[in-house]
Design a protein that fits this description.
Elements lengths: L2 E3 H7 L6 H9 L3 E3 L2 E2 L5 E3 L3 E5 L4 E6 L9 H5 L2 E3 L1 H16 L13 H11 L1
Antiparallel strand pairs: 1-4, 2-3, 2-5, 5-6, 6-7
């Protein structure tokens, strides 16, 4: 197997939990192949560079192997190699978040009544 669909590869490499989430991310431009937007059906091959943003984390990876089947996490990590710049960027971001966590970062969607009260307390 020389190539596979980019959405299948992202799902197999465990960047996204479902293939439909991977497809949506590619359609919305959150995944770039060689710095440019692409379609979910575009083929990815070994040696391609991808910039991936899944909402919580951003990666810059090089495709090392091709798979269209989702396996264990250890197998998935063998499908790509993260660039040194990407590793350093994620480390700095984690370090910043360690000292100061954005209050709204944990909220998904509208805040509940309890969340709203906590936000009001913290801003007073």
């Amino acid at each position: 197997m020389d190539t596979t669909r980019i959405d299948k590869w992202l799902w197999a490499a465990r960047f996204f939990k479902t293939r439909s989430l991977a497809t949506d991310a590619v359609e919305r431009g959150k995944v770039k192949l060689r710095g440019e937007r692409t379609k979910p059906s575009h083929g990815v091959k070994a040696g391609d560079m991808l910039q991936i943003d899944n909402g919580a984390t951003e990666w810059e990876v090089q495709v090392c192997a091709i798979s269209d089947k989702r396996g264990s996490a250890a197998v998935a990590q063998g499908l790509y190699g993260e660039t040194a710049a990407s590793v350093e960027k994620r480390r700095l971001l984690a370090e910043q978040n360690h000292f100061f966590k954005e209050p709204t970062a944990a909220l998904k969607g509208r805040p509940t009544k309890r969340d709203r009260r906590l936000l009001d307390q913290s801003s007073s």
